[in-house]
């Protein structure tokens, strides 16, 4: 009798426990549903909040009065095609630097920590070029994979890696040689918003604008390469075959003629260097925090732009959403040079997607 009652009570409690656990699961699912990509997927976004892309750019656009970009404006609010970076903390208003002051700061870096051996070449010769990459420890496996993708092509290009933390520096510098240079970026003097040492991928790619300046100033052309843009074929002949015709070659982003600084070749010539200084200025001092991509897009749309830009085709430099789309893939995959692992959605991991498409060349997972 007592045993039966205990049993019934036990069953009742178990039932209650089940209901309780279910509620906890439901609540947890609700609150984690919009959380960032899982830790291992290769995107360290935990410190930044991504919002729908609406951005008041009127203060920046003052510089380009008759500018047609961005196109979708409504009451002074314009939507940009890419996501906007929002910093959590309120920052004090920045004291903007004039272009001349900024140039001086950048030149000081180039004379100091970012100095590259000067080159002796006649003005007739084509400048040598360097592939510029950057990573921190969160992305070192993706960097490894990228290195492996160009190793497999058996090309011998000079690669400079900017390592954003000590761990990354000690990991990659063991393998450095005359063609693979590994630099630590901790000693740089960074202007304006670039100064905040925010360890996120967004900040990392924004700082690349300064590295580009340093390399271009040393007389080297720069190919900026995202480490999640895997090389399937050697793309350099596409540029060198028409080297005389243009100043810059840029892969396209979500929209036609919207730059993707994932694959981006710049000649070391004064008008390109000047554009890069303006790019740094916008990234560092605009009142709204701009991504490197949005800032560059604004500059490229400026009517006063005097740099000749060639946009690379989607068929050869597709977006992730194209390459990983089955119908697109079946039609164009054979002609693809570089696959950018962007726009892979929030749920599915980049690495997993690379693996499924034979673009992951490492054995280990992370
Ligand atoms: C790496 O990612 C984690 C979580 O995504 C983040 O908290 C951390 O700040 C990142 N570290 C760096 C060096 O970016
Ligand atoms: C940023 O805002 C401040 C104060 O609101 C203003 O004085 C300054 O001119 C603005 N800077 C730019 C680049 O528009
Ligand atoms: C790489 O850099 C070295 C100097 O460090 C230079 O001699 C060589 O020609 C460069 N290679 C290419 C392919 O640009
Ligand atoms: C895949 O691409 C085709 C056209 O190439 C398009 O019609 C389709 O909507 C795309 N699918 C997805 C899921 O984006």
Automatic annotation (TrEMBL):
One Pfam assignment: Nucleotid_trans
Residue span, Nucleotide-diphospho-sugar transferase domain: 158-352
GO cellular component, one term: Golgi apparatus
Residues passing through the membrane, by range: 12-31
UniProt protein name: UDP-D-xylose:L-fucose alpha-1,3-D-xylosyltransferase
GO molecular function, one term: glycosyltransferase activity
Superkingdom per UniProt: Eukaryota
Key words, A-Z: Membrane, Transmembrane, Transmembrane helix
Annotated InterPro entries: Nucl-diP-sugar_transferase (IPR005069), UDP-D-xylose:L-fucose_XylT (IPR052636)
